[in-house]
Amino acid sequence: MEFSRFETAAYDGETVGDVAYRRIRSDIVNGRLPPVEKLKLDTLKTTYNVSVTTLREILNRLAVEELVTAEGQRGFRVAPISAAELQELADLRVLLECHALEKSIRHGDLDWEADVVSAHYKLSVIEAALLEGQPSAVERWVRHDWGFHHAMISACNTRAMMRTHSSIFDRYMRYHMLVLDFRGRPVADDHQRLRDLVLARDVDGAVALLTRHVQSGVDYILGTGRIPRTEAGALKPPASPARPVA
Q1: What burial class does residue 65 get, using C-beta atoms within 10 Å of its C-beta: 0-12 exposed, 13-18 middle, 19+ buried?
Q2: Contacts of 113 by beta carbon, 8 Å cutoff, 6+ apart
Q3: Residue ranges with strand state E in 29-129
Q4: Could you tell me which residues come within 8 angstroms of residue 185 by beta carbon, excluding any fewer than 6 positions away?
Q5: What is the CATH number of domain 83-223?
Q6: Residue ranges of the chain assigned to CATH 1.10.10.10
Q7: What's the predicted TM-score (pTM) here?
């Protein structure tokens, strides 16, 4: 069954554990559960309405995805963040996404083009709302940003690569959500140009822009000064006055 990776409602045939897994995962990616926070089973049991046994299964699953760290008998924590990991994730994302994008541009059909246009339209509406100062649209932006990037590479016909890219994308996106939410006009302009280059079947242009697009996100995030250099670090408090998003 297909469903949104960001959806938290139950679908027919799903268990309470399935829904709790998506809720906890979403809360980590969106920064509601911050880096290195202790994941206390008694608290989580109440918050997500699942048993301790189910929680252990969920947290072990998230540990495999490297969104949670297991500490043996001491339990679990939300995975730490660091500048080095962010750059690693960006490099992996570029490697996977650019390869998948090239394959999709070469092999995608008319339905694929329509999916790209549709995904970009949805994303552009949310970006316009954010640029007009509607912060409540941030989580919708995360969903539709993923939707657009996924649509662009969906014709690569390599399921294993798509699964790996999905995991890397979420871990990379967590840094955005932790420090700035939405990067403003430059990222919206990049998305529009990417759409146009993809529809023009310009492989070299699209790959070059995508590479710059991902790295500019890294540079902006690190420019906030909130990401620690060490792997054991937690998010640093924001500088005062706050850096404007534009």
Answers
A1: middle
A2: 198, 199
A3: 38-39, 68-70, 76-78
A4: 131, 246
A5: 1.20.120.530
A6: 16-78
A7: 0.87
CATH code of the region 16-78: 1.10.10.10
Distances from the Cα of 81 to the Cαs of 119, 178, 196, 233, in angstroms?
30, 10, 34, 6
CB–CB of 28/68 below 8 Å?
yes
Rounded CA-CA distance 116/167 in Å is 21
- Contact criterion met (CB below 8 Å) for 68 and 171: no
Task: Using alpha carbons only, give the angle 147, 111, 200 rounded to the nearest 5 degrees.
Answer: 80
d(CA 177, CA 127): 15
With tokens 């690693």, the residue in question is 88
Q: What are 176-202's pLDDT values in tens digits?
A: 888 876 778 999 999 999 999 999 999
- Write the pLDDT tens digit of every residue in 139-159: 788 889 999 999 999 999 999
Residues carrying CATH 1.20.120.530, the chain: 83-223
Q: Which token pair is 149?
A: 């990037």
Measured CA to CA, the distance from residue 45 to residue 20 in angstroms comes to: 10
